[in-house]
Design goal:
4-stranded antiparallel β-sheet, 3 helices, alpha+beta
Length: about 160
């Protein structure tokens, strides 16, 4: 199976509870755009949530959670393989290095250094992709640092 490249085409910041915004991504080889990928953050955790649709009962009414009253959703897409996430993380690190973005980690947080000449749109594309694969990228950086005897300590 050949690898697919994913590009963040747009990011709309929205701050509401854990939600930090919505992204539109493109899977280039499939000529597929996926809109409204929700990006979340809670404390140290960050994640991307693929689009979902509201659950509907037999009468066609939206189903709500009995205790909170919030609309319940069902996934439309699902990631099936963690290995693909690792490949995406490797790809993003290579692309970030080629674009001049420096990335470091203290094992908990990612530290990103934006080149002055990079456009805002390009920066947001990399930032969203990096955040979505945060855990995999931290593991790769720590592995590379260990190989070279480097240790980053958070101050």
């Amino acid at each position: 199976m050949s690898k697919l490249s994913i590009v963040c085409r747009e990011f709309r910041p929205i701050t509401q509870n854990t939600l930090v915004g919505f992204a539109s991504i493109r899977v280039a080889e499939l000529h597929l755009d996926i809109k409204d990928v929700a990006l979340h953050q809670k404390g140290e955790s960050r994640w991307a949530q693929l689009p979902a649709k509201p659950m509907i009962d037999k009468a066609g009414a939206v189903i709500r959670d009995a205790s909170t009253g919030k609309i319940k959703y069902v996934n439309i897409f699902e990631f099936t393989d963690r290995a693909n996430k690792a490949h995406c993380a490797e790809f993003i690190l290579r692309e970030a290095a080629a674009a001049g973005i420096k990335i470091a980690t203290d094992g908990v947080e990612l530290i990103l250094f934006k080149p002055r000449e990079m456009s805002r749109e390009s920066w947001f594309s990399f930032e969203r992709a990096i955040i979505a694969l945060r855990e995999e990228i931290i593991a790769l950086i720590e592995q590379e640092n260990a190989t070279h005897g480097v240790r980053v300590v958070k101050q």
